Amino acid sequence: MFKVLVSDPISDMGIQQLVDASDVLVDKKTGLSEEELIAIIGDYDAMLVRSQTRVTANIMGAGKKLKVVGRAGVGVDNIDLEAATQNGIIVINAPDGNTITTCEHTFAMMMALARHIPQAYKKTVSGTWDRKSFLGVELRNKTLGVLGMGRIGSEVAKRAKAFGMNILGFDPFMTEERAEKLGVKLGSVDDIVRNADFITVHTPLTPETRHMIGKSQFDVMKRGMRIVNCARGGIIDEQALVEAIDEGIVAGAAFDVFEKEPPAADHPFLGHPSIIVTPHLGASTVEAQENVAIDVSEQVLHILRNEPFMNAVNMPPIPANLQSKLQPYFELGEKLGSFIAQASEGAVQEITVQYAGELAEVDTQPITRYIMRGLLSHHLGSEQVNIVNSMHLAKQRDINIIVQKSHKSKDFTNLVTVSLRTKKEERSVAGTLLTGYGPRIVQIDKYPVDVTPEGNLILIAHNDKPGIIGSVGTLLGNNNVNIATMQVGRQLEGGSAIMVLRVDKGTPKEVLLQLTDMSGLNTAKEIILP
Ligand SMILES: NC(=O)c1ccc[n+]([C@@H]2O[C@H](COP(=O)([O-])OP(=O)(O)OC[C@H]3O[C@@H](n4cnc5c(N)ncnc54)[C@H](O)[C@@H]3O)[C@@H](O)[C@H]2O)c1
Ligand SMILES: O=C(O)CC[C@@H](O)C(=O)O
């Protein structure tokens, strides 16, 4: 008999299939502390949570029989994925079940914002009949900027069309074909920030999206715009938002999520006359809670019964006989994927992976999954992408993956080349494993290099001419950016060339801009590898 612990309030209807299963015993014990969970988790084969229970490394460690943690919802920020993987526990989520509900909440917030509904309600029930203070705006003919056009962002765009809004969207994975189908005009973050009357964010919270809307974006926004966050706290800089409202740039904001939840009693949003808030209710409908609970219960049953399952968000076990042979290539593959994602621009359309040399003999599928994980994580967040779902996520985004193998490898016993085609350009990076030295990048586009793929790198495309290396060094030195190593690759003397610098810490954006402005230098990109 499998024992399943439900440790958060989860729809009864949704978990009925678990309750009905003859080989499962379900215990509902909500509101337990970490210590209480540690004391009992050893008895359970599966755990079902929503967002309240923090499934920590200590809980996982104590869960000696635990095979799976099911999250009835999308975000798994409350589950220690690293610890789950280390303990061989599969973590699954229910990514689709609350999409429509959260999209509808976004509209509820946007319309409440446009028409001051919460403020007007408060005044009316307090006995004041005030019609003057609540002059609203229509959605019709307004430009809606959608940042993040995945499941929820795309549904928001579809519904915004029905309101007669013009939609300007940005998502690194949105191709023009998909955008056209949705009736969305694609623009950059800057286009959206400058032109939108309403902005709504639907990205995950990643190092790249944290504060993607901050002071410098508010400074150039259309006066009187309105902004909505029903995704994750932290995507919009809360302090900068309050200042932008107080300066009259932003007319109002609607937030379902906070950088810290629940927010402190003195949080500047609470009680602010132009900010409306809900307590992370995006997914809180009867339907969504049933959907996510049904989805997650079904997959938990499959896992317990050793049947094929979906929606795993961490790494599945790899057969022991393949593990030791492939393991070093996983790291190489993930780094190559991450490198090429950061080096290139535009929506990804096609990836070609070439395995040459001894790699032609083995099943390279897991390596391709790591390459895709490195590539997609840059935009989707490492929390969402793993080797189980990386190929599926690529397919969902219409990214074509081509794998080629050759027994011949000219200069190396093994070589992995990842080429990427976007709407804007084609780039490639090749890497190898050097015995005793680990992963190396040996070619970038057509230029041979020898780069250890780790830490903070700056990738520069420039013209091969005297003095340029010195000028780059001087500019970085003047800005206190210390160069640890430098590699230069060129094909012909005086032709185009690249430089890869390893620096000791992150390079400020202004310094990258100054580099790009230098004569003879074409692009300068920061690439951060684990
Ligand atoms: N408020 C709630 O209760 C609630 C409910 C469900 C989901 N969510 C949150 O909503 C967000 C979206 O969920 P989803 O299911 O649509 O996820 P999704 O993975 O389908 O979509 C996210 C999209 O963001 C894009 N993206 C990543 N980085 C970007 C960047 N820098 N700029 C622009 N786009 C970027 C990705 O390419 C992806 O298409 C997530 O943060 C999720 O946790 C909140
Ligand atoms: O209400 C919840 O469980 C959180 C919903 C949402 O943030 C999610 O990530 O699915």
Secondary structure topology:
Elements: E1 2-6, H1 16-20, E2 24-28, H2 34-41, E3 46-49, H3 57-62, E4 68-71, H4 81-86, E5 90-93, H5 99-115, H6 117-125, E6 143-147, H7 151-162, E7 166-170, H8 176-182, E8 185-186, H9 189-195, E9 198-201, H10 215-219, E10 225-229, H11 238-246, E11 250-255, E12 275-277, H12 286-304, H13 320-343, E13 348-357, H14 365-380, H15 390-396, E14 400-406, E15 414-422, E16 426-434, E17 438-444, E18 447-451, E19 455-463, H16 468-478, E20 483-490, E21 496-503, H17 509-517, E22 521-529
Helix pairs in contact: 5-7, 13-14, 14-15
What key phrases describe this protein's structure?
530 residues; alpha/beta; Rossmann fold; 60s Ribosomal Protein L30, Chain: A; six-stranded mixed beta sheet; binds nicotinamide-adenine-dinucleotide; binds (2R)-2-hydroxypentanedioic acid
Task: Explain this structure.
This protein has 530 residues and is an alpha/beta fold. The protein folds into four domains: 113 residues, Rossmann fold (3-Layer(aba) Sandwich); 179 residues, Rossmann fold (3-Layer(aba) Sandwich); 133 residues, D-3-phosphoglycerate dehydrogenase, domain 3 (60s Ribosomal Protein L30, Chain: A), CATH 3.30.1330; 77 residues, 2-Layer Sandwich (Alpha-Beta Plaits), CATH 3.30.70.260. Helices cover 33% and strands 25% of the residues. The chain is built from 17 helices and 22 strands. The strands form four sheets. A seven-stranded parallel beta sheet has the order 8-7-6-9-10-11-12, with helices on both faces. Strands 14-13-15-16-17-18 form a six-stranded mixed beta sheet, covered by helices on one side. Helix 5 crosses helix 7 and helix 13 packs parallel to helix 14. (2R)-2-hydroxypentanedioic acid (2HG) binds next to loops. This is D-3-phosphoglycerate dehydrogenase. Belongs to the D-isomer specific 2-hydroxyacid dehydrogenase family. It catalyses: (R)-2-hydroxyglutarate + NAD(+) = 2-oxoglutarate + NADH + H(+); (2R)-3-phosphoglycerate + NAD(+) = 3-phosphooxypyruvate + NADH + H(+). Pfam families: 2-Hacid_dh, 2-Hacid_dh_C, ACT, PGDH_inter.
